[in-house]
Specification:
The complex is a heterodimer.
Chain A (H helix, E strand, L loop, with lengths): L4 H9 L23 E7 L3 H4 L3 H12 L3 E7 L3 H10 L17 E5 L6 H10 L15 E5 L15 E3 L3 H14 L3 H8 L5 E2 L4 E5 L5 E6 L8 E2 L27 E4 L1 E2 L10 H4 L4 E2 L2 H15 L3 E5 L9 H14 L3 E3 L7 H11 L6 E6 L3 H6 L6 H13 L4 E8 L6 H22 L7 E8 L16 H14 L5 E5 L2 H11 L5 H11 L12 H10 L4 H6 L13 E2 L4 H12 L35
Chain B lengths: L1 E9 L8 H15 L15 E3 L8 E11 L5 H8 L7 E8 L7 H4 E11 L8 H9 L5 E5 L6 E5 L4 E9 L2 E9 L8 H12 L9 E9 L2
Parallel strand pairs in B: 3-10
Antiparallel strand pairs in B: 1-3, 1-4, 2-3, 5-9, 5-10, 6-7, 8-9
Classes of the chains: A alpha/beta, B alpha+beta.
Amino acid sequence: MRIDKELDNMLKKVEKPARYIGGEVNSIKKDPEKVSVRMGFAFPDTYEIGMSYMGLQILYNILNKNDDIYCERVFAPAMDMEELMRECGRELFTLETFTPVKELDILGFTLQYELSYTNVLNMLQLGNIPLKSCDRGEEHPVIIAGGPCAYNPEPLADFIDVFLIGDGEELLEQVCIAKKDTSSKEEFLKKISAYNGVYVPSFYDVEYNEDGTVKAYNKVWDGAPDRVKRAVISDLDKAEFPVNNIVPFIDTVHDRSVVETFRGCTRGCRFCQAGMIYRPVRERKKETVRRLAEEQIKNTGHDELSLLSLSTSDHSCFEPMALDLMKMCKEQNVALSLPSLRLDSFSFKVLDEIQGYRKSGLTFAPEAGSQRLRDIINKNITEEDIYGAVEQAIGLGWETIKLYFMAGLPGETYEDLDGIGKIAKNIIDINFRVRGRKGGRFRVTASVSNFVPKAHTPFQWAAQDTPEQFIDKHNYLTKQLHIKGVTFNYHETKTSVLEAVFARGDRRVGKALEKAHQLGCKFDGWTEHYNDELWQQVFAETNTDIAFYNYRERSYDEILPWDIIDPLVTREFLMRENEKAKAAQTTADCRQGCAGCGINKHTECFKGAELPEVKHG
Amino acid sequence: MAKYILTFSKTGTICYTSHLDMMKMFKRVFKRAGIKQSYSQGFNPHPKMTFAQPLSLGYWGLGELLEFETEEDYGADNIKNILAPLMPEGIVITDCKEAEPSKKTLAAKTEAAEYIIAVPLHEKIDMTSSDIYDKYMGQEKILTYKKQKKKKELAEVDIKPMIRDLSFVVEEETLFVTAYLDSGSTSNLSPELVITTLIECLGLDTERSEVQVMRRKMVFAE
């Protein structure tokens, strides 16, 4: 690819210029003149982060298989590049053809985390595209967005023309084709709003009560659906999955072959949004996984393979699949990486074999320090499970144990926090017992993140702790975890507050986003770029009441801003789970019996899995 | 076991990938091609493969060389044919030959390299090519600062003895410099130092980011 002198000069001045050049192995070259629809897939963060996201590879592959569509990639330029772009008046461009994004038909953002929202606005501005939907005309691309954060689309409702909710494999291509078949933006929006998973915010007007809660969603156009059902692909095994992944030149966060083994999770942790919105479990057959892995490795030259799912060991054929992949990887000199394993004896055998003498750390996520609190959140792991696994791990030579917890969970007391210290201490003691008085180079790392209530979970009504409460808890934990051999990390409180505002915000917090963007907030998820002073100014100037969004418990009667989205898991189920949480009652894994979330009314549970019959209640 | 030397060019935007990126890219290309590279022994085995000299980020290269070993004898022409279609845009394989048996690596044999440096001129320069040569090379010493290998401190050096030959052509708004410089482990002169001293000596207002550098070839000791 040849580029103009100006861009060439810019690339000579910036860090990691290869972020901006495209041209990687398996990236797609098409003649833009020969397609009907040009789409930009935008990841609102830097290249290294965006290229590690498998969803991009999945959708890029599907769209580009269609000869009538050209999907190109767009990432947020790093600060140094942005500065030069603004200096020279260079507009945000695609990596494949260096086309200014405003010339595309559709620009689609993937929303993976709330703290990337200011980058979405910044990228629109860098593309010289008006931020608000109402200020854009036929000459501008249609701005769409999808991904897990689109399940509460409202904070971005003023800026995004169309949200796509749910699985994108079929929906995104249909939307692109509809663009070709319609002649105006309005006609296009009306046509696609008939599809499951399409939410057009401008078709609804939100009315508020005096106390600030939502009174009603009034349709502006009668044809709009009452609630937007998420899109679901029923058969994952038959769903398109890439085998020609783009291979970055530069190091990215994850630079490896990846096969998704199943989607959905049966465990029903009550804080977990992924566990709710990706229901039901749909599996890829182990033969399909193997074929995809082999082809990907062959086409990319990767020397690492990883499996993707919410809980690797829960695949119905996990053991034979893991053994088979281990054998294949060994023959081909490929490292196999199995994240999020349940640590039973089989897993240890596998891990011991694939990691050999170079053992990585073992990670446990008890999430809470006491059994009572783990019951509240329905995290089905006991301390005995952990200690048993740790003892085995130490015996096999592991020297680093990582523990993940959350602070601020509903119903949490300081006694639960004491439990975090106890678990860490007990693990240190197990090491002394197994390896003797000196204990070797053994280390335990306890990381505590702050609970952020998410939409469409049983805890969507819950209050988040205030920053003062979080800070007190962190200070308390710092003392509790002052143990030799234990490292304690906790997550920054300020960004957890910000995340929570946008995770459960309504349309009105869009004003805060716009203000934040005007003041220069961007890359808020990066510690070195997050500017708390500016954000305080934003909330003050826009009269955004953080307490209203974060610190109050919502009632079941309240219309929640994200109720316009139907995740296909019923509100009744979420309420029931929330009530059980208050009584510290657990709900069994739905492989052991249907928990009645309602998803089976819409699609088949465990499609593709080799399971004994599961009874639906 | 066989040992080969691959010649390739690197031009266009791919010049913004680094030396290490290129290593990784070649490793993956071999894997995709199904060519089994020989690996080093030890705890952290890596493929036996080295570039004659690293090419700086941003430079183009016309005669870049990669020396590598394979488990089987694949045949030089065959390797060239298999690899050529797998290369990313901007990398063109021009030759593959069997390496002569030698204990020294190409890197150890590298003596010098020839670069073409294009310096855009913002104002018309009132000098002929030989005037420029005389002014620059006529300096008794060409002093500049160079980072010391061990101490990592800047030290003043005279780069003139490391310049084997220089020639200039002024064409419209660009000054083309052909620079034949010491390269390799014994004596090494980066074109960067020539560029900064030349711009300073001629009093140009050209910025470094406007200058293009291409390595045309490398020269090896017998």
